[in-house]
Amino acid sequence: MTITRRDLLIGTAAIVTTASTGARAQPIQDVVIGVIYPFSGSSAQIGVDAKHAFNTAADIINNVYDLDLPLARSAGLPGLGGAKVRLVFADHQADPQKGRAEAERLITQEKVSAIIGTYQSAVAVTVSDTTERYQIPFLSADNSSPSLHRRGLKFYFRAGAHDEMFSAAMFDFFDALKKKGERIETLALFHEDTIFGTDSSNAQLKLAGERGYKVVANIKYHANSPSLTAEVQQLKAANADVLMPSSYTTDGILLVKTMGELGYKPKAMVAQDAGFAEKTLYDAVGDKLQGVISRGSFSLDLAAKRPMVGKVNDLFKAKSGKDFNDYSSRQFMGLIVLADAINRAKSTDGEKIRAALAATDMPGEQTIMPWKRVKFDENGQNNYADPVLLQWVGSKFVTIFPVQAAVAEAVWPMNKG
Amino acid sequence: MLSAETIVQSLASGLLMGLLYGLIAVGLALIFGLMDVVNFAHGEFLMTAMYATFGLAVLVGLDPLLSAPLVAAALFVFGALVYLGIVRFAMRAKKNIGMVQIFTTFGLAILMQGLAQFLFTPDYRSIANSWLGGKTLSVGDIFLPVPQLAGAVVSIATFGLLYFVINRTDFGRALEATREDAGAVALVGIDRNRVFAIGWGLGAALVGLAGAIMATFFYIYPDVGSSFALIAYVTVALGGFGSVFGAFAGGIIIGLVEAITAMILPPSLKSVGIYSVYLAVVFLRPRGLFGSI
Description:
The structure holds 2 protein chains of 2 kinds.
Chain A: H1 5-25, E1 31-37, H2 44-62, E2 85-91, H3 96-108, E3 114-117, H4 121-134, E4 138-140, E5 156-157, H5 163-179, E6 186-192, H6 195-211, E7 214-221, H7 229-238, E8 242-246, H8 249-261, E9 270-271, H9 279-285, E10 293-296, H10 307-320, H11 326-345, H12 350-358, E11 362-363, E12 373-374, E13 388-393, E14 396-401
Parallel strand pairs in A: 1-2, 1-3, 3-4, 4-5, 6-7, 6-8, 9-10
Antiparallel strand pairs in A: 10-13, 11-12, 13-14
Chain B: H1 4-35, H2 42-60, H3 64-90, H4 97-120, E1 136-139, E2 142-145, H5 146-168, H6 170-180, H7 182-185, H8 192-214, H9 225-239, H10 244-264, H11 270-284
Antiparallel strand pairs in B: 1-2
Helix pairs in contact in B: 1-5, 1-8, 1-9, 1-10, 2-3, 2-4, 2-8, 2-9, 3-8, 5-6, 5-8, 6-8, 9-10, 10-11
């Protein structure tokens, strides 16, 4: 980005205004939070939905709502004299280098107190490196690669589950089905080639080894491929009992279309979320996906037990036209967790917010998630974020696992072989 | 692991994909051959055609097979307008003419992508029901997806027609003459600007045809052109810059090499094969297989 004369003028004017008002009345400063997402490029839709999720959260924080969520019943942050949360959005275009540059810009120019992001785990790596260097907290709202919290970062926090937790839930589910007499012996892994896909397949390979499942195909493909024909042929030849994709939306759509074209009907499909949590994928190829199972961290079925979930979902739906999904729900919750910590820190100083985040202990009932609680370990990971498995039945997701959250029995197998 | 069946299936899929790559790339080759301009907005032309096909399918209920000629015609007009309204002026640059052209078409690409995101949102679209979509022809154990099969037929027919137009018609001769010496043709009464405009129109119409077919089996979003455009550039460089039939051969070679690489190496490395062949050609025969420069 180049700075034009006009930018400079506006910037100067803004500084002069804040400086002069600041001298007069000591008004309450906004708390500025940087939001880094892909707003253009192949995953731009994620960013568009994320913006609605964050705006919904900011709305609840800044105004008075009768909801059992932290900061809902007060206007702004009481710990900072009712200061409002202001979001600054930045576009990383799914490019780790752009993510690094945007994080730097948010910190040095926009003076953000914390950053939240990023959808792609590969971008979370560079963004969290940058926030660590500037001693600013980074809240990883929806990244799921397990290696992210194992880099010894002090300012990295993740309220959601990571792919080892998610994959463990899948294998618990397989074990439970086997006990009931289903035959599940072979697995086929299909994953994209960035940190998300590789971390996910490594976790699954490890679990398969430990629990005695045979991996008959482990196919790594290049993200955003123009064609997946060769890959699908190998999956078809392997014809495993369960196909386990870790794919973003574009590749997910192409995978399902190509499977249809090559006449491959997997016996069962258990997806590592990502593309398989997105409404657009089901709009495009949902008819071929009856019975597909995806891991998730959110389930609208929870609204029956906890009416607040339905109310928050309605607020989000009014903005976005969509129900919360696994991603938008974690993005929403991420900002609430972050704002709650800033409120308790009573400061916008990076180190003080970090300390407040580390001291977070939020009961699950005060979230919209099926989590036990939000409490970070020494790596900044919340180990109480219980995942769920959802099955696509008709035209919606139904929670099928674990038993305490399930509202229906799983349909298994997806296609009779 | 590698049965005869898998090999035949891979080669067949590779051939179908390759014919389509050729059809996508030929417009680029045509424009380059005619006036030495690389159209960096080629992928966005493809994207526009896919959205047009999608729009006709959703709003009017027209099947992509029927809308393909309409989309091609619309893209013809669009391509000609891009030349007359933008590229013509870029070619008047006195200094650094190559750079000016690159920035012009590259800027156009960014503008088109931005406009598409603004107008159509970045959501992924796809045509749910079409005559071709989702159908498969099976020969023994070999599966041939009908949309790609149609793409291959259209591609072969188009190249046949192009061969005829370029070698047997007055327009084709005017095209060839303009490409040989754009200054001299003016002396024999050929309007250079007109030929260039038609060339751009034709180039855009060809990629429009490819886009209409692709809309039946690929997802559509503002950035869809970029992964195909990259392959189109390699196809054109491989076949020989400016050679229309080089694009045909280049497309087929790339499709087959991609399929064969994916059989031998892990699929995530399948583009390694394409770029290795490309590098070999650049080192051993820099003008490309059928290039004339």
